[in-house]
Design a protein that fits this description.
Elements (H helix, E strand, L loop, with lengths): L1 H11 L4 E5 L3 H15 L3 E5 L3 E4 L6 E2 L6 H10 L4 E6 L8 H12 L6 E7 L12 E4 L6 H19 L4 E2 L1 H10 L5 H15 L1 E2 L1 H16 L4 E4 L12 H9 L1 H5 L10 E6 L5 H12 L3 E5 H7 L4 H14 L3 E6 L2 H4 L8 H15 L4 E7 L7 H4 L6 E5 L4 H14 L9 H7 L5 H17 L6 H10 L3 H4 L1 H12 L3 E2 L1
Parallel strand pairs: 1-6, 1-7, 2-5, 5-6, 8-9, 11-14, 11-15, 12-13, 13-14, 15-16
Antiparallel strand pairs: 2-3, 3-4, 10-12
Helix pairs in contact: 3-4, 5-6, 5-7, 6-8, 7-8, 13-15, 17-18, 17-19, 18-20, 19-20
């Protein structure tokens, strides 16, 4: 088990304080108990409810007069007993001057008495004066092998309770393990148990319910969204170079094993409304991979003060769901420094670049951007992402395809429309603007109890001033920049 190995290495290190941020307290405590026995070290744990007690004894032996954090730390400082001292939910007290001093004195005596302090909580801000005495560790999210074992455990549990084994479809079992990645072990176990207990079987119906539950869990934080509304390349007009590029790399993207040259991702730059978001959804749908959306705008606005930690958590969740597509929407809003954010955007960029350099496990990034000038050079250089595609305003044939797609979506037969005329009138329009013109024509027709036709759509197109006219200077500058620096999508 990787976590157990990492934990053992941290416990053997000479750093006196170990900091672990996790919501899986019980999972972690059981690992400490096992390691305490293996390393022949006593394990003590402190909580505000029970005080300090010997964790691996049965029943646990409580030490009197250690209820408060101060009492517990004074007892640890006074004892000559080497061992592991787990302080649970210590985050409200870590910055109190007296307690900080006690932590520091215990840590400074580590060479004389090996009392390893382990601070465990959902989030911990360590005081600056003891940071040099601390090491941090993050529990890994369970991989598919671990989840297969959870499924086996839950099948065994069900069999013992009901006297017979649950029905199981082999492919559904594989899908259940695959789609449970990205969750904590406790959350994954709960979903797997519910899937089995609901109907005494593991079927494809369970996969839909697991995906729905998983979407709700991932969306709770408002940071990493599990997108179910994907598309396919047939839903996207034009973008032939991008489609070909993705298809040539499909096999390598879908292979489960790691590869040194696994495709890392692409940056889609272009005019607003040009179809970058639709292209991101289509890449995931075409590959048949889960699509996760990371909204840097909400990350930056919502989590000031702990942005980097939440970014690390989101990226780790994406890594655990491999293979998958990670769509970073409007990436420039998260990594472009404004000079007034106290260095947050710089730290976000550093966290993202470090993760991207280590990303060899099947997370394919699709980043979208509207303003290339706000992106730092170190993000867009070759090696971070594989290619930069420029999504320009659609050409005549692409506009014709866009019109056909949106007419069909509204149950209107394209053969009854003058597509060439409409494609000509929509010169300079983005895909989103063409769609809105068709919608407006449908609204007007409904109001008059008629059906939209070529003339009504043409009228809407003539009344619209597209972005290419309203912001012609900015769009021309973007096109000039992209001409010899990007690949036309």
């Amino acid at each position: 088990m990787p976590d157990l190995h990492d934990l053992e290495l941290n416990l053997k290190s000479p750093t006196p304080i170990l900091v672990i941020e996790t919501l899986e307290e019980q999972r972690l405590l059981s690992q400490f108990t096992r390691l305490g026995i293996k390393l022949m070290q006593p394990v003590y744990q402190w909580t505000l409810t029970d005080g300090l007690r010997r964790a691996e004894s049965d029943p646990p032996q409580t030490i009197m007069n250690t209820d408060t954090p101060e009492q517990a730390l004074r007892h640890i400082r006074a004892t000559t007993q080497a061992g592991l001292y787990l302080l649970l939910d210590f985050h409200p007290f870590a910055n109190e001057p007296l307690l900080t001093r006690l932590l520091k004195e215990i840590a400074q005596d580590y060479d004389q008495i090996a009392r390893k302090l382990v601070l465990i909580s959902h989030a911990l801000e360590i005081p600056p004066e003891i940071r040099h005495l601390c090491a941090r560790m993050h529990l890994r999210l369970p991989d598919t092998n671990t989840l297969f074992q959870v499924i086996r455990d839950e099948v065994k549990r069900y069999t013992e309770r009901h006297g017979h084994s649950p029905r199981a479809d082999r492919d559904a079992v594989k899908q259940l393990a695959r789609h449970s990645t990205g969750l904590t072990l406790s959350d994954a176990r709960m979903m797997i148990r519910n899937a089995i207990e609901n109907d005494g079987a593991i079927t494809r119906k369970d996969i839909e319910e697991v995906l729905s539950a998983k979407q709700a869990m991932l969306n709770q934080a408002g940071l990493l969204a599990f997108e179910t509304n994907t598309a396919h390349f047939k839903d996207v007009a034009g973008l032939g170079n991008l489609k070909t590029w993705v298809e040539l790399r499909r096999k390598r993207l879908l292979e489960g094993k790691r590869h040194k040259d696994r495709p890392r991702g692409v940056l889609l730059l272009g005019v607003q409304g040009g179809g970058k978001s639709l292209a991101a959804r289509a890449i995931a749908g075409q590959l048949g991979l889960p699509l996760l959306r990371l909204d840097f705008a909400s990350l930056y606005n919502k989590y000031i003060g702990e942005t980097e930690k939440n970014l690390r958590d989101a990226l780790e969740a994406a890594r655990a769901m491999t293979p998958c597509v990670l769509w970073i929407d409007e990436i420039e809003k998260g990594v472009a420094s404004s000079g007034e954010d106290s260095g947050v955007s710089t730290r976000i960029l550093g966290t993202l670049l470090t993760w991207m350099a280590d990303n060899q496990q099947g997370v394919f990034i699709v980043a979208t951007a509207n303003d290339i000038q706000r992106l730092p050079p170190e993000l867009i250089r070759k090696g971070r992402l594989d290619e930069i595609f420029f999504v320009d305003l659609p050409a005549p044939q692409a506009r014709r395809e866009i019109i056909e797609i949106h007419l069909r979506k509204r149950n209107l037969a394209p053969g009854q429309f003058d597509l060439d005329r409409l494609a000509e009138l929509s010169d300079g329009f983005s895909g989103a603007e063409i769609e809105q013109a068709i919608i407006a024509a449908v609204y007007a027709a409904d109001a008059n109890d008629t059906r939209a036709d070529s003339d009504s759509i043409a009228d809407e197109l003539c009344r619209t001033r597209p972005l290419s006219v309203v912001m012609d200077g900015q769009i021309d500058a973007l096109r000039r920049w992209a001409a010899d620096r990007t690949v036309p999508a």
